Amino acid sequence: DKGNHRHFMAKEIYEQPETISHTLSHYVDMGNEAVALREALPFDFADLSRLTISACGTASFAGAIAKYWFERHARLPVDVDVASEFRYREPPLEKGGLSLFISQSGETADTLAALRYCAGQGQYVASIVNVAESTIARESQVVFPTLCGPEIGVASTKALTAQLTALASLVIAAGVARGTLDRTREAELVRALVALPSAVSAALGTESQIVEISRRLSKARDVLYLGRGPMFPVAMEGALKLKEISYIHAEGYAAGELKHGPIALVDEAMPVIVVAPSDELMEKTLSNMQEVAARGGQIILITDEDGARAVGEGVAETIVIPKVESFVAPILAMIPVQLLAYHTAVMMGTDVDQPRNLAKSVTVE
Ligand code: F6R
């Protein structure tokens, strides 16, 4: 049932304040502003020397964001790879290490094969899945659930933000166990997560502006998405979502890599979407933006109030989302990129919920 929405994807985008909050309530003890994992862990975060994450598509971008988080907040080194590369590479893995798999369906063939490889290497095997009775869930020693309900639209939206919510909770748990987050900081990060659903609701309020911007995107042949740090995987996800449902070619790039190649593509005809909330990296990204503007590039900036104030001239459109603690900013930044892809696809008249050539669950290799 789509409710009042035209597509399941729209319904699922709009459900995110609830689905994030529901997922969070599984991981967090709100009263104590602490993470309280209910799952019995066969490993101890304090003893790990490395975490290996494998997933496909959108779920792999959740893993890529988690890498920044685990490394910063838990000082835990993370390798993250798409499962189809990881499994055939057969990387050497230290016995007793932790391997984590992320999958909405829990049936993705490459992710499952990567899991079986890691289990065979004596790794602890954990997964973040949405479908509790799936193969990946069954074959994992510990399952961290996402509680976003069934996701019907082929393009993943609420599953991704639920995966990120679960991952953020694990990062806090790991940081506490490893002594890299003290009690005060733990409480701050938990509060930031708890405040996220209302920030997501506010970010959904950018929709009418995004409808207008999508009119412009729908005329483009190519779209470039840029982000730095944890916003780089957001850029990748924005590009993937646009490709999947609007069939417009899009690429996500690390902002700092712009001058190493893709800047050659920049002209008036190619919209450049820059994901840059105000943080310690924003200034660097702003200077990349100036390089785009100087070549006539049409910049669509996704930022917060402070970021919008800092940019000044040279930006065609600024989408302002609430300012939140940097930790949770990549989750919030998913909302405008989802809406941009959705409305562009609607404008182009594609089959949003059933895009051509795609399946909800990829059980072939
Ligand atoms: C993107 C999308 C795909 C899936 C990927 C993994 O919108 O839907 O990229 O994210 O096929 O699927 P799961 O999470 O089921 O393993």
TrEMBL record:
It is found in: Cytoplasm. One of its GO terms (cellular component) is cytosol. Catalyzes the first step in hexosamine metabolism, converting fructose-6P into glucosamine-6P using glutamine as a nitrogen source. The gene is glmS. It catalyses: D-fructose 6-phosphate + L-glutamine = D-glucosamine 6-phosphate + L-glutamate. Its main location: cytoplasm. Its EC number is 2.6.1.16. Residues 41-180, 213-355 form the SIS domain. One of its GO terms (biological process) is protein N-linked glycosylation. It is an enzyme of class 2 (transferase). This is Glutamine--fructose-6-phosphate aminotransferase [isomerizing]. One of its GO terms (molecular function) is glutamine-fructose-6-phosphate transaminase (isomerizing) activity. Keywords: Aminotransferase, Cytoplasm, Glutamine amidotransferase, Repeat, Transferase.
